[in-house]
Design a protein that fits this description.
By secondary structure, the protein is an alpha/beta fold. It folds into 2 domains: about 5-110, Glycogen Phosphorylase B (Rossmann fold); about 115-144, no CATH class. It contains 4 helices and 5 strands. The protein has helices at about 15-30, 40-50, 95-100, 115-130; strands at about 5-10, 35-40, 65-70, 85-90, 105-110. Belongs to the UDP-glycosyltransferase family.
Length: about 140
């Protein structure tokens, strides 16, 4: 079958790209080839930052973590039709939905503390059980 290949899509904001890049480098150590997808704006800045640290991955963006950029939307017929896996941040749910519809294996990554993710996923249950009263009341923390 060959070496597994996965595009990695990061939410285009500060605090999201570097953790995905670090995750991508770890995936490379486990035998993956990665295509790291950024917006044109962030791609330019990643390449500029990489020039100041040529010894560190992703280098010039042509190695095992290949850097590519996209405009605000994907162009039909763009390179990438051979992708068989997708790694995206939890906040990039649309990308995971597209991968599902296309029958592409997918994985979601959460770069913050696991406690934050757990809280995020459990809020509806906490409201349903009466621990939280409404969507924005945290009075239980104050002992009220």
């Amino acid at each position: 079958m060959g070496k597994p290949h996965a595009p990695v899509i990061s939410y285009p904001a500060q605090g999201h790209i570097i953790p995905r890049m670090e995750f991508s480098n770890r995936m490379v150590k486990h035998g993956f080839t990665i295509t790291f997808v950024n917006t044109d704006y962030n791609h330019k800045h990643v390449l500029e930052a990489a020039k100041t640290h040529p010894q560190d991955p992703p280098g010039d963006g042509t190695g095992p973590v290949r850097l590519v950029s996209i405009p605000d939307g994907l162009v039909p017929g763009a390179p990438g039709a051979d992708r068989n896996q997708l790694v995206a941040g939890v906040s990039m749910g649309w990308a995971l939905d597209v991968a599902k519809r296309l029958g592409i294996a997918r994985a979601a990554v959460w770069p913050a503390a696991t406690g934050c993710l757990t809280m995020h996923l459990k809020i509806p249950e906490l409201v349903q059980n009466g621990v939280l009263y409404g969507a924005c009341s945290f009075s239980f923390l104050l002992g009220k």
